[in-house]
Amino acid sequence: MTSYVSPYTGQTISPSQVGYESLSITQDTVLEWPINGTTTDVVANIIEVTASTNGLNLIMPPATEVSEGQSVLIRNIGSYTVTILNSGLGTITTVPSGIAIYIYLTDNTTINGTWNNVTFGAGTSTADAATLAGFGLTAIGNTLNESTPVSVFSSNYTLTSADRSSLYAWTGGAGTVTLPLAQTVGAGWYIVLKNDGSGILNIATQGTNNIDVTFTSWQLQIQESLVLATDGLNWYTYAYGQSSVFAFTQLYLVITGGTTTLTDAQASSIIQEYAGTLTSNAIIILPPTVQIYSFRNLTTGPYTLTFKTSAVGGSTIVLPQNQTIIAICDGTNVYNAQTSTSSFINSLTLGNGSASAPSLSFQGDALTGLYLAASGQLGFAIAGVAAGQLTANGLLLPVGINGGAF
User: Of 91, 106, 145, 282, whose CB count within 10 A is highest?
Assistant: First the structure.
């Protein structure tokens, strides 16, 4: 057996590291350290690899079998990208076609180890996209690409610096999201907010920060969205998408009483008409969002129709039958949009009406009042019954006079 002795120390020279290896791989290939190697798939100082197709991997041997500082230069001379994995199949780096990457072990306390890498490139140095990727950026192959992580939340939340470039979609009822302090996150930090919930999303600021110079808060209605960016002192909005849900559409709903909570689709109608025979008092629950409505009560039966939100203690509106009102909801209260009255009116035209539904009636009794009995005849309705007509020929009282006679 031939032995090799150092002429300087007289000691035996250990077997040398494999200096170079050329690999052509057609499947994922597990490498071995030269001291353990029984195949040609060893970790040489320099490996030139050619893959037969995309998606193939070179898998490093256990890091615990070598010392820290163990290194290898891997150059991809093929047409397809090769991925370098640790022993546990975690990605160390990818080697695109024509690129050389130097990897080295910095921690060998686990089988997977901790590996760092330096990209040499092909003729020129190329940065590692995965190393450069940060907030708003992601590595795809050897390029950096825009990224907007999406988070869904339904309870009050305070944004942090780690939420930079994210999209937060609200899915709860009425709630609040608080912006971070602009001075803390710094100029250029931005966030995308979207309201996919069922109530107002309040946007609050901290400290002396304002939104668009003058506002200390903002409200996103259902299906609205916007981007908020900071200059390090205040917040500025852009790409504000206003709701297309709350438009001037009409809702016609037949009810019989009880409590009815409107869906978002139903509440999106500005003009709302309610019909049906009430068998009990009816309550309509509106969404807790800012909106203006036109309500019309076409119901019958001796019961009331009330509009309110789910908020405790909010003001409500009771709308008498055969009346229409313009109402405003501020997210908590529902109130009459008309607060002033006129001392006179030049003319007033009413519908013809009938004995069972007089044109001119009273809030406390919708079945008693006046109606047009026939052309040129003024009818009197009492409790929904024709009690008299006033004509050009005189007064007709079909029910007679109570308590006496002419």
Answer: 282
Radius of gyration of the chain (CA): 40
For domain 20-143, the CATH architecture is Sandwich (2.60)
Taking alpha carbons only, the member of 227, 171, 181, 186 closest to residue 204 is: 181
Which residues lie across from 272 on neighbouring strands? Answer: 251, 295
Spans of all domains in the chain: 20-143, 150-241, 247-336, 349-406
Span between the terminal Cα atoms of the chain, in Å: 150
Distance CA 139, CA 82 (A): 15
* C-alpha 207 chain-centroid distance: 26
Cα separation of 170 and 173, whole Å?
9
The two structure tokens encoding residue 379 = 């009818």
Q: What is the pLDDT of residues 216-228, one digit of tens each?
A: 888 888 888 999 9
Q: Are 94 and 84 in contact (CB under 8 A)?
A: yes
**CA 285/CA 299 separation, integer angstroms:** 17
Which residue from 81, 72, 83, 7 is spatially nearest to 33, judged by alpha carbons? 72
**∠99-102-104 over CA atoms, to 5°?**
155
Q: Cα 197 from chain centroid?
A: 8
Pick from 280, 284, 242: nearest CA to 267: 284
Which of these ranges, 50-54, 105-109, 399-403, has the smallest mean pLDDT?
A: 399-403
Topology of the domain comprising 150-241: Jelly Rolls (2.60.120)
150-241 against 247-336: fold identical: yes
pLDDT in tens, 278-318: 999 999 999 998 899 999 999 999 899 999 999 888 999 99
Q: What's the rounded Cα separation, in Å, for the pair 260 and 281?
A: 11
- Could you report the per-residue pLDDT of 5-64, keeping only the tens digit for each? 566 666 654 445 788 899 999 999 999 988 765 567 888 889 999 999 999 999 999 999
CA distance linking residue 244 with residue 293, whole number of Å: 16
Does the domain at 247-336 match CATH 2.60.120? Answer given as yes
**HSE toward the beta carbon, residue 373, CA cutoff 13 A:** 20
- Checking if the pLDDT of 247 tops 60, the result is no
Only one residue has tokens 């002033």, namely: 340
**Helix H or strand E encompassing 214:** none
CB 390 within 8 A of CB 377: yes
